[in-house]
Structure of Alpha-ketoglutarate-dependent dioxygenase:
Amino acid sequence: MRHDPMSPITFDLFADAEPEQQPRLDRIGEQSCVLKGFALPWLDQLLPALDTVLAAAPFRQMITPGGFTMSVALSSCGALGWTTDRSGYRYTRHDPLTGQPWPKMPDVFFELAQAAAREAGFADFVPDSCLINRYVPGAKMSLHQDKDEVSYAAPIVSVSLGLPAIFLFGGFERSDKSQRVPLLHGDIVVWGGVDRLRYHGVLPIKDGQHPRLGEQRINFTFRTAG
Ligand code: MD3
Ligand code: FE
């Protein structure tokens, strides 16, 4: 029998995803939302591109201005990369480890970030920086604000891969109560507008093995930094 021309030929990209990863939009703040499972259809393109970036700019643990070694290991791609050392936090055009410019942001990274921002209501997001955070079990990120970007007009897009995490979404003072947002492999969070300067963090990652990424969580944070 011939295919009915009115019924598109499709296949289910989410056939093997967990039910909680069915694509959907959860609002977590006035201008913030979680796009559950949004990155899943992009993974086969995303992971090889990630390997290329990491071959040029490997993960490294950085030192905070206070002299502590971060439990999260970092890399970056795009025109600007975020770094910290004893002298402070900043965006740089060169990787301090290699002395080379940060690797180019792969097209598939840019396109995914732009598509997610659009889905969340932010048209024409043009990220110039992608910070790549690697968490092993036990690694965490304490409550902080992101204030190193030139403008707070653009949203921030964050892609979670690998082991699950509990994201802390706080208020405008460190002492404000935080909301706990579970994030799974393939989830994307978009923050903007009035929520841009909220305190946020990540609870220590629990032990586990992710079938695709092993014993780690990787987070991409896209920003318009410069
Ligand atoms: C919420 N990274 O790199 S996603 C960071 O999962 C960072 O690795 C976390 O916080 C992670 O700075 C959280 C990114 C994020 C970035 C900016 C925000 C969440 C935000 C600004 C306001 C509220
Ligand atoms: Fe942050």
